[in-house]
Design a protein that fits this description.
Layout lengths: L3 H23 L23 E6 L6 H8 L2 H4 L3 E6 L4 H8 L5 E5 H10 L5 E9 L5 E5 L15 E4 L6 H10 L10 E4 L2 H9 L5 E5 L2 H9 L2 E5 L9 E8 H6 L1 H20 L1 H11 L5 H4 L6 E2 L5 H13 L21
Parallel strand pairs: 1-2, 1-3, 6-7, 6-8
Antiparallel strand pairs: 3-10, 4-10, 4-11, 5-8, 5-9
Length: 340
Amino acid sequence: MRSPLIGRLAPALAAALAIVFAAGLSACSSGTSGSNSSNSSAADAPELTNITVGILTASDDVTVQIAKDEGFFAQEGLNVKTVTLESTNAATTGLLSHTLDFTTENYVGMFTEEHLVPNLNLRIVADNTQASPDLYVLMVPKNSKITSVAQLKGKKVAFPALGFNFGSMAADILMAPYHLSSSDFTTVPLPFSDAEQALARGEVDAAFTTEPFITISEESAGDRVLVDMLGGPLAGFPVSCWGTTASFVQKYPKTVAAFQRAMVKAVRLAASNTALVRQELPKLIPTMKPAIANVITLPTFNTTLTLARMERVANVMERLGALPRGFDVQSMFYPPPPGS
């Protein structure tokens, strides 16, 4: 059965992305940094020296900060400018409008867009994170009478975006035993950073959020975790990755390979050195105090992009009716070069 949220929001999302897609096809720009191609003379050097990468102010994307500070991008001949996005909904729009060359993506949102927009042709070029216990949760105010997801029926719940995403997907799975789904509550679109204040003002009854906002809400307002959204059947679920478009891969394959090599190094380092991750987080998120960085739950950094992980996401989405049976994830799979 098709997800009710997909049914309601697919036309709007598809139309919005299709407009940007059409504009992108007719644009003269060949990427955000096409003028830099003449700077590279070595046969294996990237076609572009300067690239623009979309990121979120979330712990997942600390890998880009690590790649910059550890010199991994520089080693590959890349100068990286980062652009902070409000949510991954803006990521694909940035790729299609040529304001981004690469961007953080979440698997669920990326697959949804690829399904809804014909000939979108997104490519996943590097893995990034998977869920850790209690990393993505529903928070409620400390005095809330809500003690179960079954009590969310008729309530207002904050999510970073409308539509089908990994938060609403998790809600559908957790609420299924009660014969409920995310369509039984009202979704209020709010960035993670605004959810705590919305809870305090009573504008929402619960909020889907992640670190560092979980720890901040607990310490500053006494908010409590209602449920770990990506536990149980979704334990270790693939969450974030790095993406671009097929046209960018075709036009700048050496630039893509250079980005992939740098990100593989960064993710491996993040996976093996949590002290460094905690040190780098306040650089990525200036509002995060080192004391908070030292205690928050960190994502699990996954070092290898595999088709099996992508298929796990697609299989769950297919069971929920968010994707058609046999959705083609292989065409989106563009793994790093051998030996990266």
